[in-house]
Amino acid sequence: MSILVYTENWDGKFKKLSFELVSYAAAIAKEMGLDLTALSIGNVADDELNKLGNYGASKILKVENDKFNSLDNKALSKAVVAAAENVGAKIVVFAHNNLGKALAPRVSVKLNAGLVSGVTELPSSTSPFVVKKKVFTGKAFANVKVDAENVVLTFAQNSYEIVETGGSAAVEAFDPQVGDADFSTVVNETNKITGKVLLNDAEIVVSGGRGMKSGDNWGGLEELADLLNAGMACSRPVSDEGWRSHDEHVGQTGKIIAPNLYFAFGISGAIQHLGGVSSSKVIVAINKDPEAPIFEAADYGIVGDVFKVIPQLIEGVKEM
Amino acid sequence: MKILVLISNVPDTTTKIRFTGDNTAFDAAGVQWIINPWDELALTRAMELKEAGGVEKITVANVGEKITEATLRKALAVGADDAIRIDAPAKDAFFVASQLSKIAGDYDLILAGIEASDYNGNAVGGMLAELLDYNSVSAVSGINMDGDKFVINREIDGGSQVLSVTGPLVAIVQKGIAKEPRIPAMRGIMMARKKPLNVVEAVDAHEKTSFVNFELPPPKAACKMVDEENAKELITLLHEEAKVL
Ligand SMILES: Cc1cc2nc3c(=O)[nH]c(=O)nc-3n(C[C@H](O)[C@H](O)[C@H](O)COP(=O)(O)OP(=O)(O)OC[C@H]3O[C@@H](n4cnc5c(N)ncnc54)[C@H](O)[C@@H]3O)c2cc1C
């Protein structure tokens, strides 16, 4: 018996997220005395696949079939189920990202498994299986018990320490036997975000709100983000106004992020905004209104004008 | 073409979250209930597609007890043609998807929100697709019809794509699917009273997860303030004290 972890690749490479995810799944496997198998679908070189061994995977099933590139949800979930059955997986772990959220529910039905999405910790008990997840968009947590044969989890990134085990993994080619009839998604166009730090991967995020006054005043924040290798984000009204692009909107109805450091410039801290950022490890608020609710969520704050503060912060970072 | 929009009944997004019964249940006392924000956008997009022609009917469906009817009536007031309430408490995502699978088979397009803003399950749409053996597309930020195909914009990790997919299909939608949610007009509210809201008996299904209890996040320590004139000090604190730079 085994635990299966689904690892995504980006142009043949894994990311920090992949290693964190494998570390998390390996810790559960260890706790339960099971092996950890990683499933990789796509063209990933063996030396890249082997890296997963260093985070606790003992076996890697690799599926190299370009048909899966269309990310057809039905076909991909069949492939994951075939892999889970191949290794007798009791637990399947996905990342809590776009693809993980798309596949986990389907896989859970097929495997007769209880699904817990957005888990943030190791299970507090494995028999019965009880694990903590975020609810009410970060305003609370729930301990969820699974009453089913199997378990499917989606793991919220940046909530577990990466652990290097020094181990190695055996790579095995695997054919999940998914027929042509299961593919019905045709990709007409793919647009990759290039040249900037992806918001979901960023360890530091620089975010601006309506206090930035217009779409023309973001040069300072971009410079700060550049210096810190940070991702850029914004509040909803900012993307609604078209000051920044929609993929930067964070909050209840935008992206939900959990960086180590989140800078909120001219953001009031509405409850719907905080829902998307409250899991950040450290929150810094710069706002001219001392009563702004953002200061209740923040760890560090400056009451002041963003346009006076930003140049000083840039200077401070340059001197660091 | 017929469209089914799944509607989750959730507390207003500004609700202060409290629990009762030794933290085993959500405290619903005094809560304002709304259509889950994603579902509201899904319904708005369904209305736009109907106005563009080619959609016969939009049905909204919810698994819930009588209290959720006010939310379904609101969906009718926004413009859905009829509503179905499956009469059972929404025990967990699998239970809800199992109930919906019994009424969803007649529709060409099923729209589900990416998550419900209460328990953040990210689950019902995908489970329903699997139970019906339909394809699904998730993280959908745009949808149009092109003959018997759907042309879909979806977000992927690190970018976005334009897809063509044949139906029947479950589209799991998020930001961008419609610009602003539609608010019911007076005429819509009057008409909604006469539209059918059918109550359907629940089928046998077993939930696979349950809540043991809930926790509120630990209270935050007070915010440490830095003077505006001395903002550089903040960088020093983040570097030396918080160790995040
Ligand atoms: C269902 C629903 C979902 C929502 N989802 C989201 C979401 O996902 N994300 C989101 O962000 N919002 C969301 N909202 C909107 C949310 O309620 C707030 O309206 C929004 O977050 C406010 O954005 P803001 O802080 O940029 O603007 P404001 O609330 O206008 O705040 C601007 C702040 O800037 C400060 N300021 C102004 N000038 C300066 C200056 N020169 N220097 C320093 N400070 C300055 C002001 O003091 C103020 O605090 C949602 C609302 C609803 C109803």
Essential attributes:
heterodimer, A: 320 residues, alpha/beta, Rossmann fold, 2 domains, seven-stranded parallel sheet, five-stranded parallel sheet, 9 helices, 28% helix, B: 245 residues, nine-stranded mixed sheet, two-stranded antiparallel ribbon, 6 helices, globular, binds flavin-adenine dinucleotide
Describe this structure in words.
The complex is a heterodimer of chains A (320) and B (245). Chain A is built from 9 helices and 16 strands. Chain A is of the alpha/beta class. Chain A folds into 2 domains: 2-182, HUPs (Rossmann fold, 3-Layer(aba) Sandwich), CATH 3.40.50.620; 199-319, TPP-binding domain (Rossmann fold). In chain A, the strands form 3 sheets. Chain A has a 7-stranded parallel sheet with strand order 5-9-4-1-2-3-10, with helices on both faces. In chain A, helix 3 (73-86) crosses helix 4 (98-110). The radius of gyration of chain A is 21 Å and the shape is globular. Chain A starts with a strand and ends with a helix. The model of chain A has no long low-confidence stretch (mean pLDDT 96). In chain B, the strands form 3 sheets. A 9-stranded mixed sheet of chain B has the order 11-10-9-12-8-1-6-7-13, with helices on both faces. Chain B has a two-stranded antiparallel ribbon with strand order 2-5. Chain B has 245 residues and is an alpha/beta fold. Chain B has one domain (2-217): HUPs (Rossmann fold, 3-Layer(aba) Sandwich), CATH 3.40.50.620. In chain B, helix 2 packs across helix 5 (186-192). The chains are: A alpha/beta (320), B alpha/beta (245). At the A-B interface, helix 3, helix 4, strand 5, strand 7 and strand 8 of A face helix 3, helix 4, strand 9, strand 10 and strand 11 of B. Strand 11 (185-192) of chain A pairs antiparallel with strand 11 of chain B. Flavin-adenine dinucleotide binds at residues 209-211, 235-238, 251-254, 266-268, 270, 272-273, 276, 287-289, 292, 305-307 of chain A. Residues 209-211, 235-238, 251-254, 266-268, 270, 272-273, 276, 287-289, 292, 305-307 of chain A line the site of flavin-adenine dinucleotide.
